Amino acid sequence: MAAKGYCTTDDVIGITGDLSADQISRAASLIEKAEMWLDGEIGRGWLVDVQAQEAHFLPAPYLNLKYWPVESVDAVYGRSRLGEDEKTLTKDEDYEVQKLSSGIIRLVSPGSWDRIRVTYTPADGVPGDVSLACAELVASWLQPTLRPGTYGLDSYSLPDLTVKFSRNHVQTAAPPFVREVADRYRENVHA
Questions:
Q1: Among 1, 74, 112, 122, which residue is least crowded by beta carbons within 10 Å?
Q2: Are residues 118 and 134 in the same domain?
Q3: What 3-state DSSP class applies to 49?
Q4: Alpha helices (runs of H) in 90-167, residue ranges in sequence order
Q5: Whole-angstrom Cα distance, residue 188 to residue 123?
Q6: E-only strand ranges, 29-178
Q7: How many domains, the chain?
Q8: Average pLDDT along the chain, 191 residues, taken 10 residues at a time
Q9: Which of 41, 44, 46, 3 is CA-nearest to residue 175?
Q10: Is the CB of residue 189 less than 8 Å from the CB of residue 43?
C-alpha cells in the first residue's frame, strides 16, 4: 500500500534534523505506518482523489461520507434489493447534499434502498496539524536509530552532575501533540 501523502520525508527531516540515506529510507517506510496509525486512531482518513462508489448498506436518512470535507458529489446510485439493477438517483429529488464540509447526504426515502453507492471528490489536502502529527509520529519512531546509545536512557552521570530524564513520552504509543490531534479529529461512535 502506498503512502497517502499525509507528510513527506522532508517534513520528518524538519523535525529530526539531518538524516542518513538509510534513515530517510526508514522514515519513508514509517510514513505509511504512521498514516495507518492515525487513520485507526481517528476513525477516518483523508484522500485527494475521487472516491468511487463508496457503499452504504441499509442506509439511514443521513449518509455520512467517509472522507470529508467533500468538494463535490458526482453521482449517487441506489439498489432496491439484492439482484436488482442500480438506479442513478437524482439530486434534489432522491437526495440532497446537506453539508459538504461534513460529508452529509440526506436521502428522501431511505427505506426504498438496500444499498446506496456514492462517487465523490474529497476536498484537497490533509489538514496541517494532521500532517505535522504524522511527521512527529515518524520522528518519534525514528528516535532509537537516531541516538542508539542514549535512547531510553534513564539518567546520565558525570563525576559532579547527574541528569535524570523523563521517560513518559517514550512509554506511550505517540507523543502528546499527536494524541491531541487524534483526539481533535476522532470520530465519536455510539453503539
A1: 1
A2: no
A3: coil
A4: 128-146
A5: 21
A6: 51-57, 62-64, 70-79, 87-88, 95-99, 104-107, 115-122, 155-158, 161-164
A7: 2
A8: 79 91 92 92 78 87 86 92 89 90 88 91 84 93 72 65 63 83 75 46
A9: 41
A10: yes
